Amino acid sequence: MAPAGDGIPATGVATGAAPGKHPRIIVGVDGSEASMAALRVAGALAEPLSARVEAWACWDVPAGYGVYLAVGIEGFRYAADQVLQQTLTDAFGELPGFVHPRLVRGKPGPVLIDASRNASLVIVGRRGHGSFVPGSVSSACVSHAHCPVLVVHAPEKATGNRPDGAGAAVVP
User: Fold this and answer.
1) pTM to 2 decimals?
2) What does the CA dihedral 44, 143, 8, 47 come to, rounded to 10 degrees?
3) At a CB cut-off of 8 Å and minimum separation 6, what does 87 contact?
4) What gap in Å lies between CA 130 and CA 143, rounded to an integer?
5) Which residues are within 8 A (CB) of 31 and not within 5 positions of it... i.e. 6 or more apart?
6) Cα atoms found within 13 Å of the Cα of residue 168, Cβ hemisphere only
7) In this structure, is the dihedral angle defined by the CA atoms of residues 43, 118, 127 and 62, taken in order, positive or negative?
């Protein structure tokens, strides 16, 4: 694949990888429909790009964590791991070999932005409020990431009002 003049290959995705290494796509996973759609998009991009997909679920201890430290914080990690595993199962069924789950402690925005330093692409779902307001994590990634960011909307639910199926969600 020959790079365009700006260092971005003709595919439009910066490789972010050293020569001879495969591109790295990081997907933020939170269990939402949008993050599941983001995983599916990453899966569709990974094969033609020979990319590694890392599905990152972030977890942290809520504010006022002193009480939690006394009881233990592993429950938060466990809950995040359950969400990650279920979302991967829902998105793919059997986990493809190029998808690698990763559980990371920290707030999703800063964690994904930091991870973008060594990524070719970050993909996040859009969980904003209303049709014009993106979510805080997707906004932070778009504004501050060190690589391209793809924001994926959750598929719309089919209303069943149209006999031709138009308006039904198409998920890659």
Assistant:
1) 0.75
2) -10
3) 29, 30, 31, 35, 36, 39, 55, 57
4) 20
5) 83, 84, 86, 87
6) 9
7) positive
Helix%, strand%, coil% for the chain, nearest 5: 35, 20, 45
At 79, which amino acid appears? A
User: For residue 15, how many C-alpha atoms fall within 13 Å in the half-sphere facing its CB?
Assistant: 18
pLDDT in tens, 4-51: 433 434 344 444 555 557 899 999 999 999 999 999 999 999 999 999
Is residue 123 within 8 A of residue 25, CB to CB? The reply is yes
Instruction: Tell me the DSSP string of 11-40.
Output: TS----S-TTSPPEEEEE--SSHHHHHHHH
For the chain, list the strands marked E by DSSP.
24-28, 52-59, 99-105, 121-126, 149-153
Over residues 110-121, mean pLDDT: 96
> How crowded is residue 131: how many other Cβ atoms within 10 Å of its Cβ?
6
Distance set, CA 35 to CA 28, 133, 164 (Å): 7, 17, 28
Residue-wise pLDDT tens digits, 48-103: 999 999 999 999 877 766 666 666 778 888 999 999 999 999 999 999 999 999 99
Q: Mind listing the pLDDT tens digit for each residue in 147-171?
A: 999 999 887 765 444 444 444 343 4
DSSP letter for 66, please. Answer: H
